[in-house]
Structures are given as C-alpha cells and as structure tokens.
Task: structure prediction
Amino acid sequence: MFDIPLPVCLAVPGKIIDIDRKKEYAVIDYGDGTKRRVNITLVDVRVGDYVLVHAGFAIQVLNEKKASETLDLFRNILSAGEEK
Amino acid sequence: MFSLHDRKLAQEIVFKIKKLDVKLKFMHVCGTHQDTLVRNGLDYLFRECGVNIVQGPGCPVCVTTPMEIEEIMLLAEHGKIIATFGDMINVPGEKHSLRDMRENGYAIHTVYGIEDAVFLAEKYRSRDVVFMGIGFETTAPTTAAVLLKKLPSNFSILSCHRVIPPALKTILDMGEIRIDGLIEPGHVSTIIGLKPYEFISREYNIPQVVAGFEPLDLIMAVWLLVRQIENRDALVENEYTRAVKKDGNIRAQEIMKEVFEPVDKRWRGFPVIPKSGLELKKEFDEYNARKKYDEELQEVWDKEFKEPRGCRCGELLRGLLSPQDCPLFGRKCTPDTPVGPCMVSIEGSCNIEFRYKKKTTV
Result:
C-alpha cells in the first residue's frame, strides 16, 4: 500500500478547468500534467481561477494581480528603506 | 505564475540585513517554512546575518499527544477501520505504531483528505470507519465541510484539530525563550486572516509577518521583521498577499464555528493550552468517535502516557532546542527508526534536518 506523506499545512496552487453542475467539485489542473477532482465548497470560484488546494479542498482563491505585483512591491519596500 | 524568483533582489535583501549587524531570534510555526529554510540553506544564511530562526509547535503530527495516538490505536484494536494522514501512522505509541498494527492485519488506511475516509465508510458499510482528523486551521475546515453533509452512519471522527494563536500565546507566556519576531504560517492564514494575530503584537509588543513558502517569501519576511524592530514597531504585516486576504476565508471560518467548539487541549511538549483544540459540537455527537465509543476509550482516558524515553521533541516544539542538540538525532533516532514524532513527520524539524543535512553533519 502506498502512503501519502502529506504535509498538513502544505497547499498547492492549481487552475480550475471545469466545475460540476452542483458547484461542489471542480477539476483542477496543476500545470504539470496532473489533474484532480477537488471540493470547492469552501470558496467562490469560476473556471479559470487559480486556487490553493489542501487535502482535497480548494481553501482559497489566489489573487493573480497581487501575484504579478509582488516582486515590484518587494523592490519598493526595499528602496523605501534606502531613502531614510 | 505564483512562484517568486529574483536572485538579485534576494541577495540585496540579505546584504541589507547583514549590514544592520543584528542579533535576533525569530520563531515560525510551520513545517513547510522549515522545509524551505533548510532545503535552501536559508537557516545558515540567516544565522550568518545574526538571525536565528526556530520552528515552534508548527507540525500537527508532532504536537498530537501520546494520549490521542493511544486513542486511535485502541479503536483499531477494537476492529474499527482507521483512516488518517500518511505520517501519522509511523508515530510510535507506547507499544507500537499504527503501521506496526497494520502489518499485523489491522485495518489502517492513509488518505489524502477526509473525503477519501468517507468513501471508505461507504465502501465498507458493515464496518465502522474512524477518521483521525489532525491539522490546524488549514485542515480543520475540510473536516467541518464534510460534517455538514449527509454522512454514512458507520463513519466518525476523532478530532485532533488544533488552532495556532493560543499556542503562540502560551509560548510567550511560558517565557522560556526570547522571541523577537514571529513568522506566521501562510496557509493557516489563508483561512484565519490577520486579525487573530493582532493581540500578540498589541499585548506582547512582538512584530509579526505572515509569509509564503518560496525562499524569497521568507527572505522578505525576515527583512520586514528586522525593519519593524529597527523602527520599534510591532505590527502584523502580510507578505503573502497573493494568497492571504486580511479577513481570511470567511466561509471556512463560519463553517468551522458551526461544527467545532474550542476546548482546552494538551499539545505534545506543552501543558494544557486554553481553547486551542477543536472538538465537535454536541449536534454532531453521532459522528464524534469520543462520544460514540466512550466506553471503549475509557480504558485509555484512565491512563497517563509518557513521552518516549530520551525523546526531546517537547523542548524542540517549544523552540528551546535544535534537532542536532538531541543526543538521539541521527543515531538512535532516524526516519527509519524514529523515537519521536519530530523525526517521523515530513513537517517535523528532525525529519527535515535529517533529510537535507545528515550527510554533512553526522
């Protein structure tokens, strides 16, 4: 038997490619060829959204805008320190 | 798209921290943070910059108590099918582990999530199935969500879920360790948001940063903490904005409230921590293994269980020790022959240390 050593606080990002009619489950594409059925009752999502998946559940929607801004934000924080 | 890479920026930040010539101790409470730190050699790098980072009680498998492990093993002995997360089955109990029991023919399954455990109950209708629910606020909502659905009557839950903020408070109240800043767990925070940490900054004057799991996330988190300390601030900052909202996941919080009530709970290495455990509310008694099988479990509840001999997981979980300080580390205690849970779990600091550093140190 195969035991899955799941880190209990790890969550993995994936993209929603399909949602069932009852809006209970979605198919998630992890971008590495892996697709999995995931429970989406904890979040409000649409096809195309990116979510964090943990223990078979989408636990949060990822913010693409914030993600693309993060590095710039970091650079700003760093240069703000320099002005002082 | 959601990973961060900028080597130059990382180097710049590290250079800035180094230049400040600090001597600080930070704590984080997440196995995945520890993995990022050790795998990338950031623990060494930060130490060279005067920042020592320790892992506190941030490993759900590790903080599960000997009592809870004996509870689930007793239920297995009484013929229940047990389902739990992978690492849990290797944690040594007083006599043996769940894995040993499985090798002797007991029905112990590892699952990816609670829904797989419900599936087992549907498949084996004539047997009782018990899911040992471990994990912090990241995992607890998944248990809560399942409890709100129609469940097979042969399914129940042994809730070992815990919440992080009360444990942070207890560490600070115990006062055994000086903590200059806290790196808060990103994925727990996707659920609870920033607010539950605020009292720590307010009452204990400790800077906090919620951080993600890329090396650059942690480098930035350390910089933000150092900057707060330099400015004499004590705030809760969020570095992991791509996943953590200020208010967290409100729906998940609501269903947790609907299903669980906070109870005082012992953590391995700690005294009882007030309101740190999540037990099922009365309405869910029929799915609560502790209620359903109370007569069988009484035998375990009447006993006291000690930590394994020589094991220093308790001190490790309170941030007082590093794995290499333990005389058993890498000698008597290895991932193949674990003495304590910190060597079992892939989120435990001993296991992480062994996997990435064993060859260079022992």
In short: The domain at 62-163+249-301 of chain B is CATH 3.40.50.11740 (Rossmann fold). The mean pLDDT of chain B is 95. The radius of gyration of chain B is 21 Å. The first helix of chain B runs from residue 7 to 19.
